[in-house]
From TrEMBL:
This is NADPH:quinone reductase. Its EC number is 1.6.5.5. Keywords: NADP, Oxidoreductase. InterPro entries: ADH-like_C (IPR013149), ADH-like_N (IPR013154), ER (IPR020843), GroES-like_sf (IPR011032), NAD(P)-bd_dom_sf (IPR036291), QOR-like (IPR047618), Quin_OxRdtase/zeta-crystal_CS (IPR002364). Pfam families: ADH_N, ADH_zinc_N. Gene3D superfamilies: Medium-chain alcohol dehydrogenases, catalytic domain, NAD(P)-binding Rossmann-like Domain. Belongs to the zinc-containing alcohol dehydrogenase family. Quinone oxidoreductase subfamily. It comes from Acidihalobacter yilgarnensis.
């Protein structure tokens, strides 16, 4: 038996209930995990609200760190007692125990504790595919990163700084501006006081940036396009303000033969080799000290609804962890 947060209908945080569930034995190619720490991410809100529909009833959660309790038939890479982490699905992380396919798990190296692992896997691997694959940022380039004080943003600012990249970040408060600067942001724009398009153009002497990373969505999409230089790329990887509205592809031509991509982590870690490569580069950054993971908010699993409220209200910075 395991306690878990489960939703029976889409809606607000109130639809999440703490329930006791029966956990089956691991089948072929699966392991039973005892969860040690669970990462909370904005995609969990999308699943809860139905923006990204999931089959109901469902246990939310895409990320966690755990210890192997039992192994199923055919499992040779893991054994009971191994420390592992995962991100990107299948959903079901908001639980004390769960069964997972072994090919979606990575062993945790010494030097990375459970809480840190649960804070970094989804957000850190997201940064890896965004800056090393979706658009491979080069030293001396300047990029625009919206929500620079969020969990993904803080990791990205540090990683990009280690590569010699100049980061222009947007935030909503002075406190978040200071946090982004402390984590490697070169220039911070408080969008509540400044027009971010005008400020980006000013900072780049009118040229714009080659790439914009936008997890905000509807509220920033048009402005993000206006920040790009000719043939620039907008990487839209989230919808914190709502889904981007339909638009004419002709706009991209009018604004300078621009490109737009809408990637996700699953598309860049679909194979076992892709997953290990992505996680491996993240581990290297963290173990080297180039990227420091800060868990700013910890909630008991039973208070997952309050954690969702705080994240949606933009009261949080950095990573959020639930403890089962």
């Amino acid at each position: 038996m395991s306690q878990a947060i489960r939703i029976h209908r889409h809606g607000g945080p109130e639809v999440m209930r703490l329930e006791t569930l029966e956990i089956g034995k691991p089948g072929e190619g699966e392991v039973l995990l005892r969860q040690r720490a669970i990462g909370l991410n904005y995609i969990d809100i999308y699943h809860r609200t139905g923006l990204y529909p999931v089959a109901l009833p469902a246990v939310p959660g895409m990320e966690g760190a755990a210890c192997v309790e039992a192994v199923g038939r055919g499992v040779v890479d893991l054994q009971v007692g191994d420390r592992v982490a995962y991100a990107g699905g299948p959903i079901g992380a908001y639980a004390q125990m769960r069964v997972m396919p072994v090919d979606r798990l990575v062993k945790l190296p010494e030097g990375i504790d459970d809480c840190t692992a649960a804070s970094m896997m989804l957000q850190g691997m997201t940064v890896q595919y965004l800056i090393r694959q979706a658009y491979r940022v080069s030293p001396s380039e300047t990029v625009l990163w919206h929500a620079a004080a969020g969990g993904v943003g803080l990791i990205a600012c540090q990683w990009l700084r280690s590569l010699g990249v100049t980061v222009i970040g947007t935030v909503g408060t002075d406190e978040k501006a200071a946090l982004a600067m402390a984590n490697g942001c070169s220039h911070v724009i408080n969008y509540r006081r400044e027009h971010f398009v005008e400020r980006v153009r000013e900072l780049t002497d009118g040229a714009g940036v080659p790439v914009v990373y936008d997890s905000v969505g509807k509220d920033t999409f048009e402005g993000s396009l206006d920040c790009l230089q000719r043939r620039g790329l907008l990487v839209s990887f989230g919808n914190a303000s709502g889904a981007v509205l339909p638009f004419s592809l002709g706009v991209l031509a009018q604004k300078g033969s621009l490109y737009v991509t809408r990637p996700n982590l699953a598309g860049y870690t679909a194979t076992r080799d892709e997953l290990l490569s992505c996680a491996g580069e993240l581990f290297e950054q963290v173990l080297s000290g180039a990227v420091k993971i800060t868990t700013n908010h910890i909630y008991p699993l039973a208070e997952a609804a309050q954690a969702h409220r705080d994240l949606e209200a933009r009261k949080t910075t950095g990573s959020i962890v639930l403890l089962p």
